[in-house]
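Chapter review: from sequence to fold.
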Amino acid sequence: MSERQSSGTVLESAEEVRQAIQDARKSAPSAGGDSSRDSAGALREPSTTQAFRPRNRPPMAVLCVRFDEDDEGQEIAVFASPFVIGRVEGNLVIDHDTEISGRHAELIRVFDNGRHFWQLHDLKSTNGTFVRAAVALLKDQQEVLLGGRRYRFEIDAADDDVDQKNSSATRKVQRAPSRAEQKALANLVEVGDTGKEKRFAITSTEHWIGRDSRLCSIVLDDVMVSPRHARLYRDKQNRWLLANAKSLNGIWLRISRIDLGSTAQFQMGEQRFSIRIP
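The token string follows.
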């Protein structure tokens, strides 16, 4: 006789626990909220029963270290705050990526106005921390990742001065300048270590960015950029915005700190992460 049988105590297997949870979720509420019975006649928990949840644990986060875009990666439960990520030291050390600083970024649990939430802080890293965004507000010198390359957005000083003035001022009507005569309102500058910066002039209040010259006015020669990757435009408040156009690899905005919602993705060096708040 096995020890499991002779001890009198029989442990419920993980599979049995999973099955019990699935059965409870499938069960329909009976009249009066009483327990119902399944096809075998066994009592089934009414659907109003709440699953176990710790009461004293502060809100945790689940960090997923992604190996590539197609892989689910490895999940890590984050209880401690701050939770530091770095190449040399921290709660999570990624020592193979030389673009990650020794102490690169940290996750912080914040309590404000009666609620907990998580923030991502860059720790003055050399190469920055980036978050994936649906729409990103661009300011002068803002850095973004598109495909496999980094870009810096530069607003022309003269154009920036005009934006600060009263927009109701009357302007003299002139002929529209030719494409060659158009003055850049801003520039998108490819940042690299070659010493030669490639500049893309922003000459109108809307541009499409991508790999296909038939669809885009700013064409990036990068296989990780989608044919039509993002829309760069200026809104009615004269703010410059970059919107993802359902691209495969997205747009990534460099941040110093940012509030995280229930789920987000961020990148440091070549390492990408996703985070969810249960």
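Two observations follow directly from the output. The first strand starts at residue 36 and ends at 37. Helices lie at 3-6, 14-26, 157-164.
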